[in-house]
Amino acid sequence: xxxxxxxxxxxxxxxxxxxxxxxxxxxxxxxxxxxxxxxxxxxxxxxxxxxxxxxxxxxxxxxxxxxxxxxxxxxxxxxxxxxxxxxxxxxxxxxxxxxxxxxxxxxxxxxxxxxxxxxxxxxxxxxxxxxxxxxxxxxxxxxxxxxxxxxxxxxxxxxxxxxxxxxxxxxxx
Length: 173
Fold this sequence. Notes:
79% of the residues lie in helices and 0% in strands. It is an all-alpha fold.
């Protein structure tokens, strides 16, 4: 990856967020492998990258709300079960952001109170969102695989009909 590609990635919000996440998780992965005196530094730096991501998410509310509204309004070709999963996922995601914001504000002493329960709740919502996304993607993949199977079987049926003797759609040679 050249310098121009790196700059192109870092110029976008999503590119910066993915870079921060990769560095944060990479540092966490290296932490157990590091020497005793380096572990604390790696954990601290990883934590700072995580906090940078939290601060960036303070600006995600309106884009997320707009995305959620577009998903809610779009009902084209949606299976009922997939639609329920999607709407549940949207609700979970919309609950996650304010909880995280309030927890952060309490940590920064902008709001009074303990943030531990809010961080715990936001972590549970994040996990639930990930599970819902995985289930939705798996169900969607199964539906697509079923459709592909139906198309393949229909093509096989047409092929079998084509090889039958005395086909009404052909003339003898």
